[in-house]
Design brief:
The protein has 137 residues and is mainly alpha-helical. It contains five helices and four strands; from the N terminus they run E-E-H-E-H-E-H-H-H. Helix content is 47%, strand content 9%. The strands form two sheets. A two-stranded antiparallel sheet has the order 1-2. A two-stranded parallel ribbon has the order 3-4.
């Protein structure tokens, strides 16, 4: 889950299955970390998880607005697709990963690096966390 304000990865969960449990656990992590979700707009594609009753019920509990991609339009998800591209080319492909535990460790390390240290073209060539801290200061 990515915050488009500063490009920070605010929550993630890994699983061997792409099912409702995966995204519900990701949202639980995000909502535990961020107490105030006033004005939250959650964007997704139209996969089955995001059209389920569980998804809509969860978002309505936090009074979030739902935003969905237009069918077949990759530009709607460009921000997340860009992150996944960076994750693969910078965080996974250069390493010899032979099992799920190693993959999980690399992904966690990359997300930490991405949030804390990796400069972003937007915002202001700072890392996501540095940009957020600059605005809070």
């Amino acid at each position: 889950m990515k915050d488009l304000f500063n490009n920070e990865i605010v929550a993630y969960h890994m699983s061997q299955r792409n099912d409702n449990s995966l995204f519900l656990q990701t949202f639980e992590k995000a909502f535990k970390q961020t107490k105030d979700v006033t004005g939250l707009v959650v964007h997704s594609d139209q996969r089955f998880q995001y059209t389920s009753h569980a998804y809509h019920d969860m978002l309505s509990k936090v009074d979030a607005q739902i935003s969905m991609s237009r069918r077949g339009n990759c530009y709607d998800n460009a921000s997340m697709e860009s992150f996944f591209s960076h994750l693969k080319t910078e965080g996974l492909y250069p390493y010899d990963i032979r099992n799920m535990d190693a993959a999980q460790r690399r992904i966690e390390a990359y997300i930490q690096f991405y949030n804390q240290n990796r400069p972003q073209r937007r915002p202001n060539k700072l890392s996501p966390v540095a940009y957020r801290k600059q605005l809070i200061a």
